[in-house]
Automatic annotation (TrEMBL):
Protein name: Pyroglutamyl-peptidase I
Record PROSITE patterns: PYRASE_GLU
UniProt-listed SUPFAM superfamilies: Pyrrolidone carboxyl peptidase (pyroglutamate aminopeptidase)
Enzyme nomenclature, EC number: 3.4.19.3
Family: Belongs to the peptidase C15 family.
Location(s) in or outside the cell: Cytoplasm
Sample GO molecular function, one term: pyroglutamyl-peptidase activity
Keyword Zinc: no
Pfam families: Peptidase_C15 (PF01470)
Protein's organism: Halorussus limi
UniProt keyword annotations, A-Z: Cytoplasm, Hydrolase, Plasmid, Protease, Thiol protease
The organism's place on the tree of life at top rank: Archaea
Length: 222
């Protein structure tokens, strides 16, 4: 049985993306007695979900956790919902696509939103108990992170696996190194701000805990 973990490559004005680094780091690791398959997705509206679809077909995962960077957020945020909106909000993707106020799926009967099927409240409680700052988030934005949450949930529902394969999205903050690097381009030395951050290892631990809580919730629930 496998646990599928995706992160994203760097994008916009970020030279690093902790989510992709963690996907690479955890690839092949055993978590909750299962093997993690870690994969870095392109930050491209046209390609990310095709790669996800291929991963779902190749690995038939038991749990899917997608992750991405949310610079400026103060801790780990476990997303509750993905909405049927694609809007780059001024940050073109890595193929220079700039959707504005579009629907991800334009059909009249496409749902406005899909809930994540990870046990989001239990995951956040477990993270807090482990000393990791975390919260439930009620918006994953409208960029690639929301996109992969909406599309992957739609795909699992279309495959009739929606109820069997818990899937959700975890937004990660910057790393201290990333925040320091970014602050060098700003006004920190004149009293300006620096982005909030968490060490990569703590972020990786948050991802492991997310899988553990979800796998155990799944066993108890079935
Ligand atoms: N974060 C962006 C897209 C890729 C990533 O890592 C987002 O929050 O949508």
């Amino acid at each position: 049985m496998t646990l599928l973990l995706t992160g994203y490559e760097p994008f916009g004005d970020h030279d690093r993306n902790p989510s992709g680094e963690i996907a690479r780091k955890l690839d092949g690791e055993t978590v909750a007695d299962r093997e993690v398959v870690g994969h870095v997705l392109p930050v491209e509206f046209d390609r990310a979900s095709d790669e996800m679809e291929a991963l779902l077909g190749d690995h038939d995962p038991e749990v899917v956790v997608a992750t991405g960077l949310a610079a400026g957020r103060t801790g780990v945020s476990v997303e509750r919902v993905g909405i049927n909106v694609a809007d780059c909000a001024g940050v073109p993707d890595n193929a220079d696509a700039e959707p504005r106020n579009e629907r991800i799926r334009g059909e009249g009967d496409a749902p406005a939103a899909y809930f994540a099927t990870l046990p989001v409240v239990e995951v956040v409680s477990a993270l807090l108990e482990s000393g990791i700052p975390a919260r439930v988030s009620n918006t994953a934005g409208t960029h690639l992170c929301n996109n992969i949450l909406y599309r992957t949930r739609a795909q699992l529902e279309a495959d009739d696996r929606g109820a069997d394969v818990p899937m959700g999205f975890v937004h990660l903050p910057m790393t201290p190194e990333g925040a320091a690097e970014k602050a060098q381009d700003g006004e920190a030395t004149s009293g300006g701000g620096v982005e909030p951050s968490l060490p990569l290892e703590l972020q990786a631990e948050a991802v492991r805990r997310t899988f553990e809580v979800t796998a155990s919730d799944r066993e108890t629930g079935s």
